[in-house]
Structure formats: C-alpha cells, structure tokens
C-alpha cells in the first residue's frame, strides 16, 4: 500500500513539520482566504500544520485525512489550544459532506499523492461539486525538478524523550510516461543505540506540468485559473521556483 503514513512516518512528519512551522504557505493561505465567507475544507489535513493557525486566525475550517495516526496529532494540537477540531478520517476518492464550502485548500503538494490521472481528475470534479457557486480551490504542487533530483542523505530527528528517529530514502522507480516516482522510505526508531522499530513506506508521487494541470482544472469545470510561483499570487512561475500554486473558481 502506497503513501499510508504509518506510526513512525507520522511521528517523523510531526517532528519535521510541526504546527507553527511555515514555508510561506501559512501566510499565503491566510491572505488568499481572508475574503472567504463560510466554511473552508482542507483535504489531507495531516497533523494540522496549516489548519491550526487558520483556526486561530478566526477562519471556520475543517478537514479530513486518510491516516488515523496523522489525525491524532491534529486532534492533540487542537485540544492543546481549545480549538474546535472538525476533522474526520476520509480519503480523496470517497470524501463526502452534506454542505458546500466557501473554499477548498490543499497545501504542501498533497494532491500529488494521487498518482492515477483518472482518479485525480475525478477528485477535482469532487472538489468542484463540494464548492459553493463562485467559491475557490487553492492548492500547491511541487515542480517537476523536485521529483527528478537524487534522494537525499539519511535524515535524523531527536524526540522529546531523547529517542532518535531516522529516515532513509531510496528512489526505486521513475516512470517518465506515467510521470510518477516510487521511493522506499525506511523509518527507524532508536533508543540508546538499539533499534526498537522499523517501518517501510512505499511512497509514490505524480508530477504535473503547469499547463497540463491548468487544463485538467478547466475540464473539471473550474474557471479563472491563476498560477503563481513561490507564494507570490499572480506572479507566473519561474523555472527555479520551489512551489507552484493554483487558484480556480467554481462558476457562480
């Protein structure tokens, strides 16, 4: 099973990208959502890194995630801050709500976890159908260059109790036709030099071309597509940008 975010993977994610850490995305989404009136949805909400500061700003936002472990971190962070935690365990392909949303956001390239093009297109149509008329979808994609570089060195994090967590990544497949990469991510939990647990995740992602994804959005029924680079709204992406953002609306 790909992209499951198990116990160690979720722990490492929460250590590496805790609530309060921004890559420019928290500020960007706050700015893009400031005029939204009504509930906001964040699919693939993860540990709440984005959701929590948006809740603290006064926005009405809820979310879902496929990983029970990631949702536990999100619920814990909301509990610490006495924030309403409207998060559920659902998937991109099957999520459902009995109301429309004023905005849907997908930061951090999470949409690229969908590696089948037909499924991805169906999910975009699902987003479209869950938006109120005139409401917008805002989302990030990683540029192609971030997929094609070599795997990085072994990474390590120290937990609060002094335990050590490590991550070793091995790229095992790059499919230039399907536009996907498959990596083996080996997570290890160490204490006093002894290995307590190891976990292997098969991590698969899909890259999209800028024009390609704009057309997919339009085919899903969206209009007024704006593509921006490095969280500078309206500034066309440059070849060295680290993130590409898309904003589009459901017709009024």
TrEMBL record:
Residues 40-134 form the Methyltransferase domain. It comes from the Bacteria. GO terms for molecular function: methyltransferase activity. Transmembrane segments: none annotated. Keywords: Methyltransferase, Transferase. InterPro entries: Methyltransf_25 (IPR041698), SAM-dependent_MTases_sf (IPR029063). Signal peptide: none annotated. Pfam families: Methyltransf_25 (PF13649). GO terms for biological process: methylation. This is Methyltransferase domain-containing protein.
